[in-house]
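Quick question: what would this complex look like in 3D?
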Amino acid sequence: MNELPWIEIISAVVVLAGGGGVAGLLVARRRRHDQERGGGTTTLEREPGASAQATAEPAAGGTATAIRPEPDVAPEPAAPVVETPAPTAGRLVRLRDRLARSGSPLGARLLSVLSRDALTEDDWDEIEEELLLADVGAGPTTELLDALRTKVRVLGVREPGAVRELLRSELVTLLDPSLDRTLRTEPTTADDGTHLPAVTLVVGVNGTGKTTTVGKLARVLVADGRSVVLGAADTFRAAAADQLTTWGNRVGVPTVRSDREGADPASVAFEAVARGRDEKIDVVLVDTAGRLQNKAGLMDELGKIVRVSSKVVPPSEVLLVLDATTGQNGLSQARVFAEVAGVTGIVLTKLDGTAKGGIVVQVQRELGVPVKLIGLGEGPDDLAPFDVEEFVDGILG
Ligand code: GDP
């Protein structure tokens, strides 16, 4: 065991000689980390109930190459290059332009009406229409209009800077900055000393960006220095597990998956959480299937995933992924999931491609659950923690 520091130094020298620089050092360190944790893809071929040990064999490909015994000479440089994700701090500020660029920005239109000289009933109707078009929803729109009317009348606000400030503060109020948006990703320890990883289940209708979000979230966690295991519990599409494994490999994160299409998703979730526990991983992220065609079937499946994986560790987060471009439709889907899975947070994706950012308001109101993350593009680091003030500044442009 006391050979390890030498191996690390040799690895580092080899990678540095190849021009890897700081990134190279990270690769070397990550490789050792993978070796210790048995990184790579775990393949499941059995039913739930059997011991986790029995199937935790790394498959060929992925980062599995890293767990071979150390050779006598320096390790071959064939291991996949592990990327360093962008830091999470300031992401929404960096991605803010995407909100203002999407379609015709809500804020710009509202501001142009609000700064007209004398606001007529037609102007107020126009404002109402803009808010409704942006999916703010009927109730919140009325609230916002009432507040704006009163303040414009009482304060006589006209000057563009003051109008912007007024609109900004009303939108912030509507989005409720007091909601707790932290992601619970801290592992804990049971009374008997067992390591309990933080488990995040990611649910939602297919096509909303679930798998992509799990991949992006893994990168966020890795950037924040956490160890992660992915669970590919969307077993109905082989491509979904492949997609997830690829995301994981890029940041040196192993994926627990089943080789059999249509295998029991609860079994995969169980194995992923058990692996997180046994290998003292910080966070287990489980991707699930979301076929809404059969509501009863979906409920059964999700309910079972929650029940079965909770036998190892109950989830600390159940994140519902919603596509911001689907408006009301997305909202009615959301209710189904909230009923079944006890959602603790919303991830709103594709906000870069829509002028319907107002859906954030409705989703929070309807479900009583905070938006915690937003997707602002297809790039690997285009996922940002949701921050009310930064979001409002983004839509006001
Ligand atoms: P799933 O079926 O719910 O797992 O959905 P996927 O993760 O496969 O994503 C479906 C599509 O949405 C893919 O083409 C993603 O690149 C795309 N997507 C996901 N999130 C975003 C986002 O925030 N913005 C944009 N523009 N596209 C996204």
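Answer marked as accepted. DSSP finds 15 helices and eleven strands in the chain.
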